[in-house]
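Changelog entry

Holo records now carry the ligand SMILES as an explicit input line rather than a separate metadata file. Below, a converted record for adenosine-5'-triphosphate, shown in the new format.
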Amino acid sequence: MKNLSYLNKYILRYKWHFLTGTLFVAISVVFGIYPAQYIRLSFNEVEKVIHLYRSGAAVDYHLLSNTLLWYAIVIIGSSILKGAFTFFMRQTIIVASRRIEYDLKNEIYQHYQKLHLAFYRKNSTGDLMNRISEDVSRVRMYIGPAVMYGINVLVTLAIVIPIMFSISAKLTLYVLLPLPVLSYVIYHVSQLINVRSEVVQRKLSDLSTLAQETFSGIRVIKAFSKENFFAHLFAEASDEYSRVNEKLYKVNAMFMPLVMFLIGLSTLLTVYVGGMETLAGRLTTGNIAEFILYLNMLTWPVTSIGWVTSIIQRAEASQMRINEFLHTEPEIVNPTEKPFEFKGKIEFQNVTMVYPDSGVKALDNVSFTIEPGTTVGLVGKTGSGKSTVAALMLRQYDPTNGRILIDGHDLRTINLEDYRKNLGVVPQDGYLFSDTIYNNIAFGLDHPKDQVIYSSAEIADLDANIRDFPQGYQTRVGERGITLSGGQKQRTALARAIARRPMMYILDDCLSAVDTETEDRILRNIRQLTAQATTLIISHRISSIKDADKIIVLDHGRVVEQGTHQQLIDAGGYYAHMYQQQVQSAAQPVDLE
Ligand SMILES: Nc1ncnc2c1ncn2[C@@H]1O[C@H](COP(=O)(O)OP(=O)(O)OP(=O)(O)O)[C@@H](O)[C@H]1O
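Structure line, unchanged by the conversion:
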């Protein structure tokens, strides 16, 4: 219960729901008692009349039928009221549990949003999804049904058992004897059902993951003629799923017969012991009928003790997993609310970056300066640390050593939101949302205007392409939408950054799928748009950065050279060699043999 105590704040928030719910439970139990008592009275009335008849005395049948009719009305009326209050009980407690489920999901989701990128690398998407859906559902079972039936058990036992004892302590003890056994058995069967359901759930999720992978990778599967292989994998996974499902059905099938057997045993004991007591003159036949009804009232609550216990155990395990995420502190938080106006100067001072999860040293003692309004090229071979520079500039990670100054202030001390608002970032993999092209370009804007969206697409050399689509800017991309070409995707991601009219562009190899001519045109367009904007172009293609005011050359995480294209060519070092290689391979005739 230690982990579940986290939910107390929510239970307190909805305390009135729970308090009125408890009251409704009590009222419904009280109304459940009347039918039992009036059944006893009816039996006693009929027994009295039988005695009178046998003794030859006059019998007032009219009075008897009136009395029985009146009892019947009370029995039906209280049953209806019991039903009504059970309905109110569900409306309060179950509704509160649904609201708590909603609040908890939102809390987890908002917390996810605050967490740093390393957290997302450590935990799989499936795990994140499971905690917000599966685990929260299990926790809801505790707040809703478990609390409701828990209250029901307590109230029913507290009201019914004293009444039973007041009639016959002996009969009560005999009748209650099988009930703890019932509860214990239900607990074990429920545990078994839970364990097997979890296995079924896991197999189902394996099956869905396989199906999802197949659909996402269908092009590769077809290209490699692997359809039969995947069909075979799917059949195997399906067989496994139905095998574990059969095992679950077996325990499920045991559940009801077991309950019925134990309830039957209790009823048998009531009739037998009650009959003996009636013969001894200590009870009436009405009492036996009354006891059978009390027994019916107790059966479900006592059964539910086992069920509720197993729900609580599962909820505890789920809440533990949820708490583990909720207690993960975001490593990068906005340090201040003080407004920050970014002018465009960035300075890396002896920056070293070792990724905490992989231990890879991506940058080693890197120093450089980017002056406001200039265009800087960052070039290097694959894996040399270029994207890491961009990630550090965005403060997606903090450097292991050294510091990054933004207009002279340490990046760790400035208002992150204000700073990031001024950046137009186009990552290597410019993710697009399953939405219209228009909305994808407008993503970073609070109040998008058509003119800004269209002009941004024009600057990214995309407008003509979009207008060729039958639905133009309203064309949907991604799932259930059209498939954009690699270059179109990259240019849409670029238009999204341009639409913000940022102070600084960080273009991380984002035009690799676009031909060099178009790339030149786009970069010229950006320069024309904002002369004051600072631009960092990351590329392994020298043609993309050769016109930059400054070029920084990275190799194995170290800055090996800095200067303009001409200076670096003249120096005849690493850059000049790289340039030579790229020029040669571009000029190489393609061997068609
Ligand atoms: N999030 C991360 N966690 C752990 N290691 C990482 C992470 N990102 C990059 N690395 C590692 O850091 C090194 C530098 O990677 P980085 O992406 O910065 O290189 P790059 O120059 O941008 O390469 P490319 O041109 O192929 O994109 C690589 O060895 C990479 O495996």
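Spot-checked after migration. The CA atoms of residues 445 and 500 lie 6 Å apart. The chain has a mean pLDDT of 88.
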